[in-house]
Amino acid sequence: MAYAACPKCRHSPLPEDQAFPALCPACGLVLAKYGARPLAPVNEAGGPTRLETFIFHVPEKVPKWSWQGRALALAVVALWTVWIWIDMDIRNGKAGSTFLHMVLLPFHEAGHYAIFRWFGQFIMTLGGTLGQHLMPIVVGVSLLVRNRDPFGAALFFWLLGFSTVDMAVYMYDAFDPKLRLLGGATGQESDGHDWQNTFGDLGLLRRARGIGLFFSVVGVGIMLTCLAWATTVLRLQRERIAH
Fold it and tell me: 125-137: per-residue pLDDT in tens?
């Protein structure tokens, strides 16, 4: 196998003849003795792009138990995703997981009253949805940037995808409110329906159902993309398992 970039340090270019004892000029890796496939796609100059190196970061050595645990976690999340999609019914107010809805609910309420209440009534009303999206975004970015853990980040951005589906249910309901809100009333019986108020302020209430269906597709797309991202990270990590 001929490498376009060093599979260890990503240096390029490499010697054209990579037969033993050819070395990487930067780190001294004996290319013929390195059995792993290249860890990231390469750009036209022969090395990985900065973004690819960032989102597909792989440590020098991956403990076997850690990789196996992550593989199990990914399998569980993938099966859970299928279950969510089977149970999802935007038109009838079902996001597919009551459990995840309840996990996001405290962050939704915190968005209203602890974070965005200082920015006026419109932003405060929108702040519930912003708050529930903000949690997986903040944790995912922190895992990616500070911990160099793209696998963990992928799972939290998967949660962002579900949060988008959860938002889509609320959006769809705004046109003809039937969902029970925290106070026990629907949007027809109270003024507490976030998206009924938001769409009303924006003059979009008649389009609420179409917007809700659109964002349900966006949410599903985010979940699917993040599963693919996590799968790719695991595949790359497999090449670095410490035996």
Answer: 999 999 999 999 9
CA distances for 184 relative to 40, 181, 196, angstroms: 51, 5, 16
Domain ranges of the chain: 1-55, 62-242
Residue 92: strand, helix, or coil: helix
Distance CA 54, CA 204 (A): 39
What is the CA 71 to chain-centroid distance, rounded? 17
* 11-228-211 Cα angle (round to 5): 125
The closest alpha carbon to 166, from 111, 105, 117, 224, belongs to: 105
Tens of pLDDT, residues 168-198: 999 999 999 899 888 777 777 788 899 999 9
Helix (H, G, I), strand (E, B) or coil at 187: coil
Residue positions counted in the chain: 243
Residues 6+ apart with CB under 8 A from 239: 36, 37, 39, 58
242 phi, psi to nearest 5 deg: -80, 120
Sole residue written with tokens 């060093």: 6
- Strands 241-242, 62-63: parallel, antiparallel or unpaired by DSSP? parallel
The Cα 29–Cα 240 span in angstroms is: 15
